[in-house]
């Protein structure tokens, strides 16, 4: 699986830990999700209803060579925030072409299937699918 360097590094970080340590790493990512920019209101962001917790995203394609991604999720939703943070850290600032080339199921390489419910994993898949849909339109 070929991934952009920032996302590949995150996948490697998850591959280096086992069991509950994967959840701990996901929790660390949840704490690193940056706040949305002041000029962006959550009401103007797209909801991702497939996520178990409220999640909103914004895909700024003004510069297709440096796509900007913004996510909003409540602090009491660490799994959802962790997934959003992984996508933010792994894809923000990349070109539309690089993001579109990310395999839809890349998240399986994180090895979280034993630690996180399939329903929650589908939420991450839905986030990536919505980002790609924005890039294709």
From TrEMBL:
Residues 12-133 form the Fe-S metabolism associated domain. Pfam families: SufE. It comes from the Bacteria. Gene3D superfamilies: 3.90.1010.10. Belongs to the SufE family. This is SufE family protein. It comes from Rhodococcus aetherivorans.
């Amino acid at each position: 699986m070929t991934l952009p360097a920032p996302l590949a590094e995150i996948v490697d970080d998850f591959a280096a830990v086992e069991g509950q340590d994967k959840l701990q790493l996901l929790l660390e990512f949840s704490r690193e999700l940056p706040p949305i920019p002041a000029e962006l209101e959550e009401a103007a962001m797209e909801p991702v209803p497939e996520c178990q917790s409220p999640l909103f995203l914004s895909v700024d394609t003004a510069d297709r060579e440096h796509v900007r991604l913004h996510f909003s999720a409540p602090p009491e939703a660490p799994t959802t925030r962790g997934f959003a943070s992984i996508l933010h850290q792994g894809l923000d600032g990349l070109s539309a072409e690089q993001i579109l080339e990310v395999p839809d199921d890349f998240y399986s390489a994180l090895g979280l299937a034993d630690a996180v419910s399939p329903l929650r994993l589908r939420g991450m898949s839905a986030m990536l699918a919505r980002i790609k849909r924005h890039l294709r339109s």
